[in-house]
Design a protein that fits this description.
Elements lengths: L13 H9 L12 H14 L4 E5 L2 H12 L4 E6 L3 H4 L4 H5 L4 E5 L8 H10 L7 E8 L10 H13 L3 E6 L2 H8 L14 E5 L9 E5 L8 H7 L8 H11 L3 H21 L5 E2 L7 E5 L2 H9 L13 E4 L6 H15 L1
Parallel strand pairs: 2-3, 2-4, 4-5, 5-6
Antiparallel strand pairs: 1-7, 6-7, 8-9, 9-10
Helix pairs in contact: 1-10, 2-10, 8-11, 11-13, 12-13
This protein binds pyridoxal-5'-phosphate (PLP).
């Protein structure tokens, strides 16, 4: 396998596939009124150790856009990192679904928002001519493969809350972040001040789907209608929800995330030893960003390796997934070494 293009290029993990097949058992109520959806929602409440509200949508763009829209009026603004997926890769979805809430971008080292930078945006203007800051959104793990520590999240969230802002987390790679930090999911979400989490399943091995988890249940009032209007209410909901059962059962999600992270570390270590290859960010999750000479990039592509170079901060982005093998990592390292030499 020569693909390091994206963790969503991987197939369905066996646990999720089994659970999907098991849910194909005759007739069941539609639109989420089925036992699989109830069970997964309960499992997620147990995982997060709190009585949260859970919704399932088809993809991360919808999860983020609809979650942010539920936190904003059209005259509000959302503070995000300049490399945030909501800013760079959602085609204006958050602005569209919120009827015009503006994204205010902030710079920050290693793909992270720092409290001072967030405060600067909040304090910049409070007059009626400026879109009123209402939400801060953090991406965990970040778009550049780093991970916020619990205290870093808490610092941003505390500041936001003190100013009357809500906190949203884009958790497309939340599993990788939890595996990397070795903490309970609650520690980097509601206990740190996060109000809503978009919990990514697709990149961790589901066929399709993300969960939107509201820790403050007052914020999810009418969210079901928002999903339906946006075309995100699955009629055969059980096939969206059931695969989560496979992922959650026996902590398969954590096992897969640890594996993907370990493959990224292995890759990073191998590349770091090659003259001419320069790691661009600390490797804390399942992505490696590396600066490679153009000739090496071209050579790799000629040999069939697949990866992107336009994402986030530039460089080659090499993503590991639940099914990345040590052999493929070592073969890639060997090819880089040969081409660079
Ligand atoms: C992949 C990804 C998403 C979700 O993207 P979709 O293609 O809409 O599912 C959201 N945020 C981040 C950081 C991502 O990497």
């Amino acid at each position: 396998m020569r693909s390091f293009a994206s963790d969503n290029n991987a197939g369905i993990c066996p646990e999720a596939l089994q659970a999907l097949l098991a849910a194909n058992a005759g007739h069941a109520p539609g639109y989420g009124d089925d036992e699989w959806t109830r069970r997964v929602s309960d499992r997620l409440r147990a995982l997060f150790e709190t009585d949260c509200d859970v919704y399932f949508v088809f993809n991360g763009t919808a999860a983020n856009s609809l979650a942010l829209a539920s936190l904003c009026q059209s005259y509000h603004s959302v503070i995000c990192h300049e490399l945030a997926h909501v800013e760079t890769d959602e085609c204006g979805g958050p602005e569209f679904f919120s009827n015009g809430s503006k994204l205010l971008t902030v710079r920050g080292a290693d793909g992270k928002l720092a409290p001072e930078a967030v405060l600067e945006v909040i304090a910049r203007r409070s007059d009626i001519h400026y879109p009123k800051p209402r939400v801060v959104t953090l991406t965990q793990a970040t778009e550049v493969g780093t991970v916020y520590r619990p205290a870093e999240i808490a610092a941003v969230a505390e500041l936001a809350r003190a100013r009357g802002l809500r906190v949203h987390m884009d958790g497309a790679r939340f599993c990788n972040a939890v595996a990397s930090l070795g903490v309970a999911p609650a520690e980097i979400t509601w206990r740190a001040g996060v109000d809503v989490l978009c919990f990514g399943g697709t990149k961790m091995g589901l066929p399709v789907g993300e969960a939107v988890v509201f820790f403050d249940r007052r914020l999810s009032e009418d969210f079901a209608w928002r999903c339906k209007q946006a075309g995100q209410l699955a009629s055969k909901m059980r096939f969206l929800s059931a695969p989560w059962l496979g992922l959650l059962e026996g902590d398969a999600w954590l096992r897969h995330a640890r594996h993907a992270n370990a493959m990224a570390r292995r890759l990073a270590q191998g590349l770091a030893a090659i003259p001419g290859a320069r790691l661009l960010f600390p490797v804390e999750a399942n992505g490696v960003f590396v600066d490679l000479p153009q000739a090496v990039q071209d050579g790799l592509r000629q040999r069939g390796w697949r990866f992107y170079t336009f994402i986030a901060a530039g460089g080659a982005r090499l993503m590991c997934s639940w099914d990345t093998t040590p052999e493929s990592v070592d073969a890639l390292i060997a090819d880089v070494k040969e081409l660079a030499g």
